[in-house]
Each structure stands twice: as C-alpha cells, then as structure tokens.
Amino acid sequence: MFLESPKAKDLKGDVVKMLMDYSEIYFGIKIENIPVLLFKHSIDFIIEAFDDITIQDVENSFKYSKIEKKQYTALTVDELIDPIFKYFEKKKILLNEIEKIKRLESEKIDQIRKEKQFKQHSKEKYIETLKTGIFEITEFECNAIAKNFKDSFNQEQKNKIWKKAQIEYRNRSKNAEKFELIPSAERIYSRMIIEESIKKGFKYIEE
After folding, report:
1. What are the b/e assignments for 155-193, b being 16+ CB within 10 Å?
2. Average of pLDDT values for 20-28?
3. Range of the domain at 184
C-alpha cells in the first residue's frame, strides 16, 4: 500500500490497460464487448476523486477485493471503480490509525522529555538546599527524586516515615479548604525522605 509507485494521472494509458485486463480477469467480460469510453470515464472519475492515486493503488484495489459479477449484465463505470473506492476507504482508516500511533508516540516522547527536565530541576533544588539549608522543594519535586535515596534508609526507617506520612495526609485532608489540592500520602512520604536526606547531608545520588 505504501510502496513507491508512479501517479495514475501521469500514466493514464497504462491504467486503461490495467482496467481492461481486470475487466476480463475479475469481471469475466470480453474487452471487445466494452466501449473504450467506459474506461476513459472510469479513469477521469478515479483521478478526480483521488488525485494522488498510484499505479500500485489501482493494482491493490482489485488484487485484494472480493468481486462478484452478476451474470448477463453489462459492466458499468460504477461497478468498475467500486473496488478502488472501497480500497481507499480502508487506506484512509489505516492512515488515520498510523497518524494516531505517531501522535501517541510523539506525546509519549514529549512526556518523557518533560519528566527528565522536571527531575533535573528537582535535583538542582536538592543540591542548592544542601548548600543553603533552606528547604523550598515541593512535594511534587521531592517525589521526582525520592527514589534516588531508596537505599539510604533501611526498611524500619522507611516504615516509620511512611506511618508519619499517612498521619500527615489524613490531618491535611481533614483540615483542607474546599478545592484545595492535597498531595498524596506517597508524595508526602517522598518529601519526608528528602527532608531526612537533607538533615543527614546526603549527597545527591544518581540512579
């Protein structure tokens, strides 16, 4: 479907020959019984509807279509070009899905880039806090770097800090103003981990 191929509008004669061949192969009709004008009209309709249609598209349209010719009826323009229109409906759906995947991949890459930038910013604030002793790191920033210090505390210490974080979360939730955003217990826990790391003077640990 996406192979490089010449445009049908640049090789109308070749497309007419293809349609003639397909009329015999897929519709079982003798070429001598069909006026050449039918094929010329068919080409005009196709190119008008699909300006970028390629020779490969025309071939695919018939190759992958299920065609049932009614016995004892003359071949019409609509009947001849119907496989091409159905093919392009499928191609349009596929192109939309490809664009959707590309967009999601682009959004994912952009999200990863933003997360890295945010983590780098949080790291810089941690290092600055070590120098000044002034703690101005938000819970969201702490959450971005807390995992880097996971091996700096034993399990007993982590359990105690986690219990304190849960208590703080409940108290802050109970006393919160309407529509006030309260960080999760996990983010409060991250802040407490970073606070302890600052107190102990831990250097920033790269993952």
Report:
1. eeeeeebbeebeebbeeeeeeeeeeeebbebebbbbbbb
2. 86
3. 137-199
> pLDDT by residue (tens digit) across 140-189?
999 999 999 999 999 999 999 999 999 999 999 988 887 778 899 999 99
Which is more confident, 33 or 93?
93
For the chain, report the end-to-end CA distance as a whole number of angstroms: 45
CB–CB of 173/204 below 8 Å? no
Are the C-beta atoms of 50 and 102 separated by less than 8 Å? no
**DSSP β-bridge partners for residue 155:** none
Q: What is the pTM assigned to this prediction?
A: 0.64
Question: Do residues 149 and 84 share a domain?
Answer: no
CB 9, CB 58: distance < 8 Å: no
The count of structural domains within the chain is: 2
Q: What tokens does 107 get?
A: 């959004």
Residue type, 195: E
Q: Provide the H-helix boundaries in 50-184.
A: 55-63, 77-132, 139-145, 155-174
